[in-house]
Amino acid sequence: MYTAQQFEHIFENSSYIVEQVFERAQYTDAETLFQAFVNEVQQLTEAQQVALLQAHPSLGANIQMTNHSVAEQQQAGLKQLTQEQYTNFQRVNKAYEETFGFPFIVAVKGKSADTIYALMQQRLTNTRQAEFAEALAQVIQIARFRFDDIVGVSV
Q1: CATH of region 4-151, choose from 4.10.520.10, 1.10.3330.10, 1.10.150.240, 1.10.645.10
Q2: pLDDT for position 67
Q3: Which residues contact 28 (CB under 8 A, 6 or more apart)?
Q4: Which site among 34, 53, 59, 85 is 20 to 30 Å from 40 CA-CA?
């Protein structure tokens, strides 16, 4: 049987999602549990979903973040940016946040810093509605990667 404590970090600084799912039921099947997490995110109000997005750190930023985010950004090379790359990331991050009202979110696993930067520039051209949906999809993908790491699924 799974416990809320096992999964409290799959959503960035938003353990309340996990807690709410476990308040409703006990889970022994991993896929059923993950789908319950997805359903919980989808049932949040738009304001709650925006808060979930805003709980994510800006990519490449030198700020305090969860151990999961540090490890994921490290793997993608975002902690070894040159000064020029760092400046470029900060410039595009700022433009993105000013445009959409939340930080750029992407599941960085398996992506390089250059790929992530190109995605940032490309997604800046999205409508807010399209980008909001994409950012939520990325939150779910990040949660999936973290969930699979916890339950021992190889990707």
Answers
A1: 1.10.3330.10
A2: 57
A3: 1, 2
A4: 59
